[in-house]
Amino acid sequence: MTRYVIVGGSAGAIGAVEGIRKLDPAGEITVVTEEPMAPYSRPAIGEYLYGRTNLEGLYFSSPEFWLEHSVRVLLGSRAMSIDLKDKTVKLDGGQVLGFDKLLLATGTRPFIPKMEGMDREGFYTFTNIDDVQRIRQELPRTERAVVIGGGLIGVEAAEALVNLGVGVTVVELRGWLLNLLLDREAARIVESAMESRGVRLVMGQSVKEILGREGNDRRVGGVVLSGDARLECDLVVSAVGVIPRTDLAVQAGLKVNRGILVDRFMQTSAPSVYACGDVVEAYELIGGGSRVFAIWSLARLGGRVAGANMAGGRVEYPGGVAMSALRYFGVPIVSVGLDAQETTKEFEVLTKRGSESYRKIVLRENRVVGFTLVRGIEAAGLIYNLMRTQTDVSGLKGELLSPDFSFAHLPEKVRKRTLMEAWA
Ligand SMILES: Cc1cc2nc3c(=O)[nH]c(=O)nc-3n(C[C@H](O)[C@H](O)[C@H](O)COP(=O)(O)OP(=O)(O)OC[C@H]3O[C@@H](n4cnc5c(N)ncnc54)[C@H](O)[C@@H]3O)c2cc1C
Q1: Is the Cβ atom of 247 under 6 angstroms away from ligand 1?
Q2: Which among 170, 216, 226, 326 has most CB atoms closer than 10 A?
Q3: Which residue of 296, 317, 327 sits with most ligand 1 atoms within 8 Å of its CB, as the best mutation to test the pocket?
């Protein structure tokens, strides 16, 4: 009987268990996860903070998922080291697990830039349920908060705090928010929605010091910006970014770049060790190289591929594409593939700006390689399909920018193919 050990118990691990069980109903699967609970949706922790969803709603799969798939779960256990020769994983409690196949699905940890005073009470990150529960305890004494970083996690934290009646300032180093996802014009729509909800935006600056409070220097009382201005606040959320948790892989001697390097089968440089999710640098569909993606659906997909291959299958990872479907401060956004910041002469960029909306399509040799829709996102699935199939859209350029772009605009040949695929 094959012994599988999975380190991490989130999206990647769930996918892997699904992949293994398809081919191997009897193998012994052990999941080691330092978090003390069933897998939950990390993207929904903001909603959990402001009470839009409760703990039940946050669970990603049913809490019985492990039981239903005959998985032994070691909750609250951390894997400390891997011995590739003996094929063992050592846990923090001293327990040693033997494996035939090992999966690393350890995700990311927050990157926290060094700031003076960051050890003060009231300074938090925002990536897991523990962060949210600790921020919740601060709420009765929090009127003003500073969020450092205006990316996806920072904007999500800001929205949750605003919904709780906290006055929020977002400090972003670059010139606009969500800059890894959106260009300046698209971001402006989200920024104005945030400002209309009272969020103050400070662009082009960072925080260099966390100040103490008058009468209690141990608690957060404000911040000093890189330009020397001071902002008073009761809470600081650091949301500058995340980095892959590659420490175990490095210790084991696996090949690691920014993330753990894996091939198209999600296999690492050691034959019996696989990896998936936010911790890997895996094949990228559009660019053709390899890249780290922090995307829930790709973590699960990579897990399914890894799991199937660990169980003796031969399944190829189709490749990742940057892909976000979000709704911040009431503004729906879909951003897929290459964005404007990656475009050069080889790309043609079509844009259309409405009073409150924005559409951008990035083409290479008349094929869609990326698109951004801000409001009016209904055709996202259709455009994604054109991108996925690398359909020649030279006859459709005007239509692609129209908010009414629909199935009916597609050439008959493409319509037929799309329908056949949907029925297959
Ligand atoms: C606030 C927030 C919002 C997000 N919003 C979106 C979104 O809108 N859309 C989207 O697609 N993605 C979003 N993401 C990203 C998404 O959550 C990740 O892509 C996904 O969770 C990755 O899954 P994973 O299994 O690779 O890793 P993770 O979910 O990071 O899980 C890794 C697990 O492994 C555990 N672990 C690590 N090391 C060890 C060890 N040594 N021993 C035991 N356990 C260990 C960790 O504690 C953790 O529980 C968001 C993330 C955050 C934080």
Answers
A1: no
A2: 170
A3: 296
Distance between first and last Cα of the chain: 35
CA neighbours closer than 13 Å in the CB half-sphere of residue 344: 1
Q: pLDDT 10s digit of each residue in the chain, 424 long? A: 999 999 999 999 999 999 999 999 999 999 999 999 889 999 999 999 999 999 888 988 777 899 999 999 999 999 999 999 999 999 999 999 999 999 999 999 999 999 999 999 999 999 999 999 999 999 999 999 999 999 999 999 999 999 999 999 999 999 999 999 999 999 999 999 999 999 999 999 999 999 999 999 999 999 999 999 999 999 999 999 999 999 999 999 999 999 999 999 999 999 999 999 999 999 998 878 999 999 999 999 999 999 999 999 999 999 999 999 999 999 999 999 987 555 567 889 999 998 889 999 999 999 999 999 999 899 999 999 999 889 999 988 888 998 888 888 887 877 787 777 766 6
CB 333 within 8 A of CB 326: yes
With a 6 Å cutoff on the Cβ, whether 30 touches ligand 1 is no
Alpha helix (H) residue ranges in 139-228: 152-163, 184-196
Q: At what angle do helices 184-196 and 152-163 cross, to 10 degrees?
A: 20
Task: Give how far the C-alpha of residue 132 lies from the chain's centroid of Cα atoms, to the nearest Å.
Answer: 17
C-beta of 209 in contact with ligand 1 (< 6 A): no
Burial class (CB in 10 A: 0-12, 13-18, 19+), 123: buried
Q: Determine whether the shortest distance from the Cβ of 32 to ligand 1 is under 6 A.
A: yes
Task: Report how far ligand 1's centroid is from the alpha carbon of 40 (Å).
Answer: 9
User: Is the beta carbon of 295 within 6 A of some atom in ligand 1?
Assistant: yes
Ligand 1 nearest-atom number relative to CA 276: 26
The reply to whether ligand 1 has any atom less than 6 angstroms from the CB of 97 is no
